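look at this fold:
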Amino acid sequence: QEYGWEHAGHINVLELEALLLHVKRRMRTRSGIGCRFAQLVDSQVVAGVVAKGRSSSKMLGGPCRRLGGLLLGGHGVMVVGWTKTAENPADSCSRKWKAVRKKDGKLRRVRV
C-alpha cells in the first residue's frame, strides 16, 4: 500500500517505521494474531536491526522496540529477508511517480 510521509526523516528510520506500520496492520486482523510470516526489505540496515532485535542508534531503537513488542503481544513471528531495491516487488508503488519541473521552477510529483 502506498502513502506519503507527514514528516522528513532519515531513510533507515522511515523504512523501519514503514515495516512497523505493515506489522501493525497485519496484527489488526484476526488471522494476523499468532501468524508466522516473511517480509522482504530493501534496506540492509533495517534487515540487520530487525534480525538482531535491537540497535545502538536511538533513532532506530524506539521503532525496533515497538516492533518487538507488537510481535510479542500478537504472538507473531516475522522473518526478514533482504532484497535489492530493483528486485523488491513491494516497491512498484513508488516507481509510479516522477519529478516534473513546473513553470515557476519548483518540482512536483506526478503519477507516470
Summary: The longest strand covers residues 36-41. The two ends are 17 Å apart (CA to CA).
